[in-house]
Specification:
Strand content: under 5%
Shape: globular
Helix content: over 70%
Number of strands: 2
Strand order of the largest sheet: 1-2
């Protein structure tokens, strides 16, 4: 039972990080009806930024997070202005292709800037632990859980109780109507990309603190896609719940199923995609996504 509880708690922390990435994915889809294929690369860049500020530059953790978030905001503004805005009014496929190109560009940035080398920085994170009987949460997982919960709560407040959140929800629902009401779609898209990039960068710092950072960390974007499909493509609450579910299930698979595999492991890495396939077959709109019916 102790082993199960340990896997459950660390899986919860992992799931909240997945939820962070999925939220950025969802808000872009809600506003543009297009997938951000580069979400994993944004997370990877966040991990490398965390390493740069914490190890070579030796900044305090809180300052490294603030500076990384600021860089993420600038990155979101640049992407929206130079890559997204020229595609407004174009088919959603054009934006998807742009994010594929963006993913390749960010991969190149990681290789040119950091050599694509595997780096770690968990040793400089605060040594805070939480113990429940025989169950203890590792410092990196606990920090990731606490920061993720705070960020998710702040985002939910932003979406529900602020004018910016109202403008984002209105634009996602009916952009032509919101333009008629005086809401600038370009402003909303800029805010959406800033939020997505900042959240992705912060998630990258947290994930890098747990497992290190290298170019393969960008594959986390595919797991975020599985989270989004499970929760519902246009549901922020669904993304949070689905992230927690998949994080816990992945950790349980690593603890219980991987040792039973002839190769000694690997099932946990593909487990989110198995769940995604099952969801696509039996409930394509996800747990909380809107079920749309088109009549021809």
């Amino acid at each position: 039972m102790t082993f199960f509880a340990q896997l459950f708690i660390t899986g919860l922390a992992l799931g909240m990080m997945y939820a962070l990435i999925a939220i950025g994915f969802v808000i872009i889809f809600k506003c543009s009806r297009a997938f951000n294929i580069a979400s994993g690369q944004i997370v990877m860049i966040g991990g490398y930024l965390g390493y740069t500020f914490l190890i070579p530059l030796g900044l305090p953790v809180w300052l490294a997070i603030v500076v990384s978030a600021a860089i993420g905001a600038v990155m979101g503004l640049v992407i929206e202005r130079l890559a997204v805005r020229p595609l407004l009014g174009k088919p959603a496929l054009a934006l998807v292709m742009m994010t594929i190109a963006l993913a390749g560009a960010l991969d190149g940035v990681a290789i040119l800037g950091w050599g694509g080398i595997y780096e770690t920085y968990h040793e400089v994170l605060p040594e805070i632990t939480l113990t429940f009987g025989a169950v203890s949460i590792p410092p990196s997982s606990l920090l990731g859980l606490l920061v993720s919960v705070v960020i998710v709560a702040a985002l939910l407040f932003l979406f529900r109780f602020t004018k910016i959140g109202l403008a984002m929800r209105a634009t996602a629902e009916d952009e032509p109507v919101t333009r008629g009401l005086g809401i600038k779609a370009t402003f909303v898209y800029a805010i959406v990309w800033v939020i997505a990039c900042v959240v992705g960068v912060l998630a990258g710092i947290l994930l890098g603190g747990v497992s290190g950072v290298s170019p393969p960390l960008a594959e986390i974007g595919l797991k975020a896609l599985a989270v989004v499909i499970l929760g519902g493509l246009d549901s922020i609450g669904g993304a949070i719940l689905a992230g927690v579910i998949l994080g816990i299930l992945e950790n349980l698979a690593a603890g219980y199923l991987d040792p039973m595999m002839p190769s000694g492991g690997g099932l946990a890495n593909v487990f989110p995609f198995i769940v995604m396939l099952v969801v696509l077959v039996f409930r394509p709109h996800g747990l909380f996504g809107l079920k749309r019916i088109e009549r021809v």
